[in-house]
C-alpha cells in the first residue's frame, strides 16, 4: 500500500520483523491526522470505490475461480 500511496509502511525490527506500538501510533497519526497524510487519505477514499464494491469483488472472485478450474487448458 505504501507504493500505491494509500498507506505508509510501519518500520520493523530487521531481526524478527516485529514493530512497536509506538511506531504503529506514529505512522497512524501521520496518516490520519498530519498534513502529510492528506494525499494518502484522498487516495484511500478513491480506492474505497474499488475495494468496497461487493459486486465487483464477487465478479473478480468468480472469474478467478473459473480460471483456476479450467487451468491449464
Helix content: 55-70%
Strand content: under 5%
Report how far apart the termini are. Answer: 34 Å
Radius of gyration: 18 Å
Rounded mean pLDDT is 91
What spatial form do the alpha-carbon principal axes imply?
Answer: flat
Structural class by SSE content = mainly alpha
Number of helix segments? 3
Q: Major sheet, described briefly?
A: none
**Into how many domains do the coordinates divide?**
1
Residue ranges: pLDDT <50 for 5 or more in a row?
none
Got a strand count? 0
Order of helices and strands: HHH
Short description:
This protein has 73 residues and is an all-alpha fold. Helix content is 59%, strand content 0%.
General description of the model:
The protein is 59% helix and 0% strand. By secondary structure, the chain is mainly alpha-helical. It has one domain. The protein starts with 20 loop residues before the first helix and ends with a helix.
Amino acid at each position: 500500500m505504501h507504493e500505491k500511496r494509500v498507506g505508509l509502511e510501519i518500520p520493523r525490527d530487521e531481526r524478527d520483523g516485529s514493530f512497536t506500538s509506538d511506531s504503529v501510533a506514529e505512522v497512524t497519526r501521520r496518516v490520519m491526522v498530519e498534513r502529510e497524510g492528506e494525499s494518502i487519505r484522498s487516495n484511500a477514499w478513491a480506492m474505497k470505490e474499488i475495494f468496497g464494491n461487493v459486486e465487483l469483488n464477487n465478479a473478480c472472485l468468480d472469474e478467478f475461480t473459473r480460471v483456476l478450474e479450467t487451468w491449464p487448458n
